[in-house]
Amino acid sequence: MTQRLQINRDRLLRRLEQFNTIGALPGGGNCRLALSDEDRAGRGLLVNWMRELGLVVTIDAIGNIFGVRAGTEAADPVMFGSHVDTVGTGGRYDGLYGVLAGLEACETLKDAGVVTRRPLALAAFTNEEGSRFSPFAMGSLVHVGGVSLEDAYAVKGIDGASVGDELRRIGYVGEAKPGSIKAHAYVELHIEQGPVLEAGGLTIGVVEACRACPGPNF
């Protein structure tokens, strides 16, 4: 008989509230630009929560964070997650919701004593927003081989700092080779925030299509 599981909504909301004290802006919203001190603080909190749940934490050379929950088989994991960096005036959910919802899913499974067949890998990718360093989706691009690590390190931000120098400064140049954790499948719960729904008086929106984004231009 299939066991029906239910996440702990209040626990998820508490984590969102706590995380969003990092980089909070007056009047609402958040600023955790990639590889900033605020990003480092958020990363530290996430890693602590991962380890508290018994996830095996791996950080790769571009600073992507992975928390792996073992399965009954030594197979490629089902991966899920998003990012914790924001734009300059970011929303409270955006990528963070995908990461913390994944964390909550792992804790729900742990509470119920459920072990999946495949391992599960919770991912937080580096510089997905691209507000400080271009291109966006940098961590995931390096992960899949779309951008070389050397090219990514050399990118200069809007403040003149380089990705490589800032990764070293905040202590997130990991030992793992990017792409060493290969996903069997990937799913992302994501809230893309903007003024359109609010201006239209609508309470929910459903994605109907996604246009292909142009590749990075170094």
Fold topology:
Elements: H1 9-19, H2 37-52, E1 56-59, E2 65-69, E3 78-82, H3 94-112, E4 120-124, H4 138-144, H5 149-154, H6 163-170, E5 185-187, H7 196-199
Parallel strand pairs: 3-4, 3-5
Antiparallel strand pairs: 1-2, 2-4
Helix pairs in contact: 1-3
Structure overview:
The chain has 218 residues and is α/β, with parallel strands linked by helices. Helices cover 33% and strands 10% of the residues. It is built from 7 helices and 5 strands; from the N terminus they run H-H-E-E-E-H-E-H-H-H-E-H. It has a 5-stranded mixed β-sheet. Helix 1 (9-19) packs across helix 3 (94-112). The N and C termini lie far apart (53 Å). Mean pLDDT is 92; it is low at 212-218.
